[in-house]
Amino acid sequence: MSESRRLHAPAKVNLGLRIHARRPDGYHELESLFAVLDLADELTLEIARADAPSVTLRVEPPGTGAPADASNLATRAAELFLAETGLALRVAITLEKRTPVAAGLGGGSSDAGAVLRALDAFAPGALPPERLSKLALRLGADVPFFLAPRAAWVRGVGEHIEPVRGLPELPLVLASPGEPLSTREVFRVYDVLHPETRRTDTGKPPPDLSRLVADPAALGALLHNDLESAALRLCPAIRRLRGELSARGALAVGMSGSGPTLFGVFSSHAAARAAAATPLQAPAWLRVATARESG
Which of 15, 222, 231, 256 is most deeply packed, by most CB within 10 A? Predict the structure, then answer.
C-alpha cells in the first residue's frame, strides 16, 4: 500500500504577542493572535509500507536556506511520528520552499504540521488527537497551531489554541532585512532585558475583529509585540523597516513572532501593492500578502 499526498503549508503572522512569564523549565508563557497568510510552502509525501521505517527529504529550489537533512522540522516530524506509532513506513518528502527561513513566519513549523497531518490521514487513529498535539508541541511551540491552521488565540507555550471567527482579510506588506534571526537568541536577549517578567493580565480579543482596519488605534494596540525590543538589539535594521512601512502608508505596523519580518496593514489590497511597488535595497525585501482566517 502506498499513497502520494500533496499538502499546502501556509505561513502565519502574529497579530501581536505578549509574554506573560518565564517558566522554571525555561519556556515562556505567551499570548498571541495567529492569522494565516496566503504565502505557503508545498509538500509532497510519498508514503508506503516498508520492512523498516525511513524518511528522506528533498528541498526545492536549492539555496533557500532550509536544511535538507535530519535537522529539518519536516523530517523530524515524520521521524517522531513513526517512532511514536511504531509504524514501518517509507516516507519520501519533497518540500517546495517559499516561506523565508527564520523570518518569524512559522514556515518550518507549518511544514512539520503538514507532515503530521499527512501521516495522520494515512494511518488514522495511530495517534489519538491529544497525543498528536503533544507530539507537535515537542517539535516547537507553533507546530500545534499548524495541525489545523486557522486564526486563533494561542496561549501558554503553544498548547492552548482557541479558534476565532470574524477576522477580516488584512492586506499586508511584509518587510524583512533579508537576514535570519534565531528565535532562541531573541528570547535570550528578551530575558536579559526583562529578567522579572511576571505579567498576570491576559489580553482579550478586540470586541469586533471585523472593524480592525477601520480603527487604526485599536489595530496598533493589538499589534504590539513584546519581543520587538530584543529583536531590535540583534537586528537594528528593524527600526528602519518600521519607518519605511509607516512612510508608505501603513495603518499600523507589527513584527511577526520573534522577527525579523515586519508587516504593515494597509487599507486595501491596491494600497498594499502600491506600497510595495518600490523595492528596498537588497538584501532587504518587501512582499505583498494577505492575513486571513484560514488557508
Answer: 256
